[in-house]
Write a structure and sequence with these properties.
Number of strands: 10
Helix content: 55-70%
Distance between the termini: 49 Å
Strand order of the largest sheet: 1-2-3-4
Structural class: alpha/beta
Largest sheet: 4 strands, mixed
Order of helices and strands: EEHHEEHHHHHHEHEEHEHEEH
Shape: globular
Strand content: 15-25%
Bound molecules: zinc ion
Length: 361
């Protein structure tokens, strides 16, 4: 489970949790309410409103998750943060039609909620802006919040939902890396506008500037990743397989791993059990963690990371793309239930460097 968050249960097989900083938001409202001398009923309504908004955000994330599920893509978790929700998909759909629906499904949920609230909306603007006390002003405010959520998320500010919709639409006509490049450029432009508005325009929340910074960084990172995927197109794992690698056994003392780390250039080790079956990987980071605990009595098996092996005929571009979610940079390669080699990130990036040098000369 995610650190720093409170687990709220699993729905549709997806664990949902809320980040502790969400509590700060509640405290903020209590404090504001206290300062304004509100009654406890007003405070209660205020908190109920925040919780209702977050329920809408949660349903928005389930929109993405359930659309992804329809295309066979799992969602690892949904986390609610004070700035919104985050659905961690196992991977992003590469088919533009699927990406379009997965991205659009979130804002669509808010549009549907707004439509459901429409019969309760009062257009008495004065009453609406002044308070949320009473059922009608409460629902009216919730209605407009959902409208804002859907409109804001649908701005073509890649990697926000609208930006993904834009990228998907462009991908119908253009190669993925070009579509991403354009969407990222539009996203970065929006990000700069958000930063400017947030910092320099009175009455605009500085929060918008922060969102702008996140969008700018996210757009750059995704665009670079897509460019790499393009450069790796057509490349299979067997093409750049490394057949030299170090093996450890799960029952080996950790000292053996330390000796091997110092004696060889390997940073990761493939770990097998007594029957020579694949068990996992021992990374240098994990090894150092064990050392920091001065636990030299430990066995290799206590420090292994279970990394799903890849196949000889897997596409390197897909292995690289999955890295964003799994965060692993080393993959054992399995063929007929046997480890036949390994692949690491350095290895992939070197290939790209060499290929680019060849293309440019
Ligand atoms: Zn969304």
């Amino acid at each position: 489970m995610k650190k720093n968050s409170l687990y709220l249960g699993s729905y549709f097989g997806i664990p949902v949790s809320v980040h502790w900083s969400f509590l700060l938001l509640i405290f903020y409202f209590v404090w504001i309410s206290f300062k304004q001398g509100q009654t406890s009923m007003q405070l209660f309504t205020q908190i109920l409103f925040v919780l209702s908004v977050f329920l809408c955000v949660l349903l928005h994330e389930f929109g993405h998750a359930l659309a992804a599920k329809k295309y066979g893509i799992k969602t690892h978790s949904i986390v609610l943060l004070p700035i919104g929700g985050l659905a961690s998909l196992e991977k992003l759909p590469s088919d533009p039609k699927q990406e379009l629906w997965v991205a659009f499904a979130g804002p669509l949920v808010n549009i549907v909620i707004a439509l459901l609230l429409l019969p309760f909306v009062s257009l008495d603007l004065e009453q609406m802006s002044n308070s949320i006390s009473g059922i009608q002003p409460f629902l009216t405010n919730l209605f407009f919040t959902n409208i804002i959520l859907s409109v804001f998320n649908l701005l073509p500010a890649f990697p926000m939902d609208g930006g993904r919709v834009l990228r998907a639409l462009l991908s119908f006509k253009l190669p993925a890396h070009k579509a991403t490049q354009i969407a990222a450029w539009v996203g970065k432009s929006f990000a700069l506008i958000f930063v400017f508005l947030g910092l320099f325009v009175p009455n605009v929340s500085p929060f918008l500037a922060l969102i702008g910074v996140f969008i700018f960084m996210g757009a750059g990172a995704e665009s670079n990743a897509k460019q790499k995927e393009f450069e790796l197109e057509g490349l299979l794992v067997k093409d750049i397989l490394m057949t030299k690698y170090e093996i450890l056994y799960s029952q080996d003392p950790i000292q053996k791993a330390i000796d091997l780390l110092l004696a060889s250039s390997a940073k990761e080790f493939v770990v097998l059990n007594q029957n020579n079956e694949y068990e996992g990987v021992l990374t240098r980071d994990n090894l150092l963690k064990i050392l920091a605990q001065k636990n030299t009595e430990a066995l290799v098996q206590e420090a292994i990371t279970k990394i799903q092996p890849i196949g000889l005929n897997d596409k390197v571009a897909e292995v690289y793309a999955a890295k964003a979610v799994s965060e692993s940079t080393f993959w054992p390669v399995m063929h007929n239930n046997e480890i036949v080699g390994v692949l690491d990130l350095e290895n992939i990036l070197e290939y790209v460097l060499v290929r680019n040098a060849q293309l440019n000369s």
